[in-house]
Amino acid sequence: MKIRHALIGGFGGTLVAVLGVVLMAFLMLSQFAASWTEMSTVIASRHQVMLSGTLRLGYATKHFNNYLREGGDHAVRFDAEMDHLARNLATYRALSTPDETERNLLDSADRYVRLYRQDMTRIVALRARLADPTTLTAALQGEHDKLLALTLRKLNDINTRRTDTASAAINRQLDLNRIGLLLAAALASAGVVTAGVLASRSIVRHNQARDHAYAALEFEIQERRRAETELERYREHLEQLVEARTVELRAANRSAAAASQAKSEFLANMSHEIRTPLNAIVGLTHLLQRRSSDAGQLDKLSKISDAARHLLAVINDILDFSKIEAGKLVLEEKEIDVRGLSTHIVSMLAEQAREKGIELDSEVAPLPRLCGDLTRLTQAFLNLAGNAVKFTAKGSVTLRVTQEEKVGSSILVRFEVADTGAGIAPDVLSSLFEPFRQADNSITRTHGGTGLGLAITRRLARLMGGDADGESTPGRGSRFWFTACLKLAPELPDKPPDTSPEGSAEARLTSTFAGTRLLLVEDDKVNQEVARDLIEEIGLHLDVLDNGQQAVDRLREAAPGYALVLMDMQMPVMDGLEATRRIRLQHPASTLPIIAMTANAFGEDQARCFAAGMNDFVSKPVDPDRLYTTLLKWLRQGADIPPRDEQADQARLPLRGDTI
Predict the structure, then answer these.
(1) Which of 10-19, 213-222, 476-485 bottoms out in mean pLDDT, i.e. has the lowest?
(2) Number of helical H runs and strand E runs in the chain
(3) Which residue, 647, 631, 552, 629, is CA-closest to 595?
(4) What is the C-alpha separation between 356 and 396, in angstroms, rounded?
């Protein structure tokens, strides 16, 4: 019985102890929960109020600045945001009893709110009087918005510190309750209570970890969606920018192409209009020189010829420079005689050098057979040699051609001109290869020139894979050079010996083709007269028609009896190109040569003539020697006479087909 009572008493005591522990734990947990709930509510509310207040202040400042710049309804929006801010401050006071520091800060915040409102009232009044932005800015003496923001920040800091302090106190209370609860549970049932506490803590931590994982996953999904949205917006904006830029570039390209076309047409028209009367001047001067024996008249005719040659050189320089700049200059690639090129230039400048008492020499190193553009090489080399003779008062001018290096199947050839002239200062030398630049403005008056020669030489050299430059010593002379990359010529069988009679093209035409009938299609009366005299003076017969339609009608006859046709391009009724196309329907190029003789001197004009069916091209003003050489070439083919070596003939002719 005693044992039972003892057991009952012990059980009852244990049960009472357990119930007491449970009750004590319940009371402690209830008190802790109440304290934690109260603190969490106050802290969360204060943080929400301060966050809202800071946000409202930011909006108010934005509307304040917008009203200062733009006016409008930003003043009304400012007042609304300040009302919200004032209510937030009142809510903060009501949440809990603030300490002395908080009260002072809240009072300061209220005062700054009033002052900030007064600033807006003053700005509204000034704007109503149409004050300028400078006056509005000067009216703001205080920085009440910044002071108000600083006050709110201090309140937030105090609230944060109070939150940290309360959290620490509650954590300490929680620790004490936990210790008491664990001790009491140990007295009652250490094992069961310990297991329950451990299980409860494990479940709580698991739930918290799960909640944190869900929150992190949701945040990552939101960030990824936001990034994808931003990327899509940037992509669309980039596509719009690219499309707009593409439209601008297309418009710019169309404008540039139109401007280039207009420039080319203008130059072509100007060239044609200048060359047409210049052809008459050159042709009539040539005829008068042949027929006159008066020394005075011959001197004046020589001066007219020189003036025409100078005018044509200026025109050619401007056209060449324009074509090079536009990228429309196409280089030929034919076998050339470099030694003959140098000899040809010396012969062209020999008389001018002899008049000035200058010794003119050439030195050509042994070179293999090469291919290149003989016309452009001669033009560039002649520019350098002509300048040397022009600006050298005494001494000598030496032309040199040497091999610099071999590059694959090509050779880099150096063309150099050295003189003993006055020399050029180094600061001036570097600018001579720029367009329209000369060493001194006085040179233009003394020697003439456009200042394009060296610029054209450098551009031609670079087109041929080389470069151009110079060096000079004042008082001792200058040395200018250019290089060109020329291909090695293919091996060809030896040419048969020349069996044709010796003499100039003019003499061979007179002796071989006297009485041959030619047809000239030309609308300009003066040029008709010049061509008639040039042709009939060497014993050939020339018929003249005024336009292409007349030529088509004439050649439609069964046996017109013409050995060759000289065709102008621009004529009324029917131009030369259309006339040639119609003539070729009945007379192929092998039976009736048609030679263009026109003032359209561009490369494109020559290509159009060949495309229409013409055999050759002679540009105006017509050089008689070149005209005779061209006539001899095609009359020989029609008569089956073996041709001479035309390269030697070409070397005796001027620089280009359009020079005198």
Answers:
(1) 10-19
(2) 18, 12
(3) 631
(4) 10
The CB-side HSE value for 213 (13 A sphere, CA atoms) comes to 6
| Measured distance CA(114)–CA(110) in Å, rounded | 6
| Pairwise CA distance, residues 485 & 552, whole Å | 46
Question: Token pair 């590059």 is at which residue?
Answer: 407
Report phi then psi at 411, rounded to 5: -130, 135
Give 355's DSSP letter.
H
Average pLDDT, the chain: 79
Percent of the chain with pLDDT over 70: 73
Segment 488-500 mean pLDDT: 62
SS3 of the chain: helix, strand, coil, percent, to 5: 65, 10, 25
Q: Which residue has the tokens 């004009």?
A: 605
Positive or negative, the Cα torsion across 525, 526, 527, 529?
Answer: positive
Query: Which position has the token pair 């700005």?
Result: 123
Q: How far apart are CA 657 and CA 267, in angstroms?
A: 18
Which of left, alpha, beta for 416 (phi over 0: left; psi -120 to 50: alpha)? beta
Backbone angles phi and psi of 568, in degrees to 5: -80, 160
Q: What is each CA distance from 154 to 102, 104, 159, 530, in whole angstroms?
A: 9, 11, 9, 105
CA 306 vs. chain centroid, Å, equals: 43
Q: Where does 231-386 show beta strands of DSSP type E?
A: 334-336, 359-364, 370-372
How do beta strands 359-364 and 396-407 pair?
parallel
- Taken in order 172, 177, 182, 183, the sign of the CA dihedral is positive
Q: Does position 548 have pLDDT exceeding 90, yes or no? A: yes
Please state, in angstroms and rounded to a whole number, the distance separating the CA atoms of residues 658 and 653: 11
Q: Report the alpha-carbon distance of residue 373 to residue 378 in Å, rounded.
A: 9
